[in-house]
């Protein structure tokens, strides 16, 4: 058997890694050493980047959070801006060529009312409003810190640019969806973070100690999970006084979602720790006199960190949907706070569905984000075990 054939035999057990190598590289011992020396994270990244759907989902999630972070800059108007002349105006079309030149503009709008008192907005391209980029407009706080009035794009005075139409008060839906994403997406992050702390510690402690501690933890988890979600949300949200300021209500909703959402992670980590607690590195730490807290926080939690990331990514959609559901039912955030759930609550009638379908744009944004999170979570779940084909 030649040297190349021997190396090929060694690579047969490393199918994922071998796919990255050319036939010439199979005969290269340095390539073989690099594969054997790869860390767990390197193997996970190598497998994850092959999943194109997961990469696409990650890019979409990143774009959503980037847009939420820069909402004040990207949105042409603030939440307080109202255009009473353009109530329930449909989305506008941006035209990019003006008299043979590349100059984005929007057409003017003529309002007509038919015999049924129904409004019709007719584009009038004889009146053109060239878009101004990096224009000065209404002041806002960039990143919540820096006072500025520069917006990515705006229509000149006397015109309006509304990519997603306007609502029943003449407010720009594109701006409101962007500002609403700040609340909905950060509630998802904070809720998952608090669930991580509870679920990681309680799940690892339950699996590590076993016995009566494990029985107590599992009965608590079963008790929480036995309640139907919506009645439980209603019971907990009833404790939030309606006169509380928006910031306190925001924190209360996040806390409610965290108290409900930690059980799944705890169950997952308990199973992982039950398999890890008899591993050599745990027994070696105990034999050197390490305390239980040291073993849990320095060995077991880091050993399950990849699993924690996967479960957290898959938990984000449920957190965002929970906030949306609570606000939609009137149990969570309320105006003047703007979130995707609050935006959907304002249009929960058949008239909006039949006549003004563009006001349901927040539902489209939620669906896209949830789908992207699921794609990303599935890719991370597959990559968390890089040794399977």
Please explain how this structure is put together.
With 389 residues, this protein is of the alpha+beta class. It folds into two domains: 84 residues, no CATH class; 208 residues, MetI-like fold, CATH 1.10.3720. The protein contains 17 helices and five strands. The strands form two sheets. Strands 1-2-3 form a three-stranded antiparallel sheet, with no helix packed on it. Strand 1 and strand 2 form a beta hairpin.
What's the total count of β strands?
Answer: 5
**Could you say what the CATH architecture of the largest domain is?**
Orthogonal Bundle
Strand content: 5-15%
Please outline the major beta sheet. 3 strands, antiparallel
Name the assembly state: single chain
Radius of gyration: 27 Å
Shape: elongated
End-to-end Cα distance, whole Å, is: 27 Å
Show unreliable segments: 6-14
Q: What is the spatial order of strands in the main beta sheet?
A: 1-2-3
Per the CATH scheme, the topology name of the largest domain is: MetI-like fold
Total number of domains: 2
Helix content: 55-70%
By DSSP (H or I, 4+ residues per run), the number of helices equals 17
Class of the largest domain, according to the CATH hierarchy? Mainly Alpha
CATH superfamily of the largest domain: MetI-like
Q: Determine the structural class based on helices, strands and strand pairing.
A: alpha+beta
Mean pLDDT: 79
Topology order in helix (H) and strand (E) letters: HHHHHHEEEEEHHHHHHHHHHH
């Amino acid at each position: 058997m030649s040297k190349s054939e021997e190396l090929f035999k060694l690579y047969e057990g490393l199918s994922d890694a071998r796919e990255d190598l050319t036939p010439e590289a199979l005969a290269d011992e340095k390539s073989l050493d690099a594969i054997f020396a790869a860390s767990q994270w390197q193997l996970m990244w190598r497998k994850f980047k092959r999943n194109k759907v997961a990469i696409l989902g990650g890019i979409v999630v990143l774009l959503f959070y980037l847009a939420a972070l820069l909402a004040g800059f990207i949105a042409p108007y603030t939440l307080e801006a109202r255009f009473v002349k353009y109530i329930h105006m449909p989305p506008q079309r941006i035209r990019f060529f003006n008299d043979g030149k590349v100059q984005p503009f929007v057409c003017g709008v003529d309002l007509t009312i038919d015999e049924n008192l129904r409004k019709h907005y007719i584009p009038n391209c004889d009146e053109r409003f060239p878009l101004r980029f990096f224009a000065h407009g209404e002041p806002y706080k960039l990143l919540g810190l820096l006072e500025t009035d520069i917006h990515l794009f705006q229509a000149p005075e006397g015109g309006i640019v509304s990519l997603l139409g306007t609502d029943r008060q003449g407010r720009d839906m594109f701006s409101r969806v962007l500002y609403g994403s700040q609340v909905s997406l950060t509630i998802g992050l904070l809720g998952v973070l608090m669930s991580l702390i509870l679920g990681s510690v309680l799940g690892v402690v339950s699996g590590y100690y076993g016995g009566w501690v494990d029985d107590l933890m599992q009965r608590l988890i079963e008790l929480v999970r036995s309640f139907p979600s919506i009645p439980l949300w209603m019971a907990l949200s009833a404790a939030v006084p309606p006169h509380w300021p928006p910031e306190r209500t925001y924190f209360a909703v996040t806390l409610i979602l965290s108290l409900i959402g930690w059980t799944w992670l705890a169950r997952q980590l308990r199973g992982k720790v039950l398999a890890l607690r008899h591993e050599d590195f745990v027994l070696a730490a105990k034999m050197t006199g390490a305390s239980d807290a040291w073993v849990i926080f320095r060995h077991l939690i880091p050993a399950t960190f990849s699993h924690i990331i996967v479960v957290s990514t898959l938990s984000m959609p449920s957190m965002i949907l929970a906030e949306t559901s609570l606000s939609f039912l009137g149990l969570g955030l309320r105006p003047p706070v703007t979130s995707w759930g609050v935006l959907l609550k304002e249009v929960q009638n058949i008239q909006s569905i039949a006549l003004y379908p563009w006001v349901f744009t927040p539902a489209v944004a939620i669906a896209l984000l949830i789908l992207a999170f699921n794609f990303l979570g599935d890719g991370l779940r597959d990559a968390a075990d890089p040794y399977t084909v």
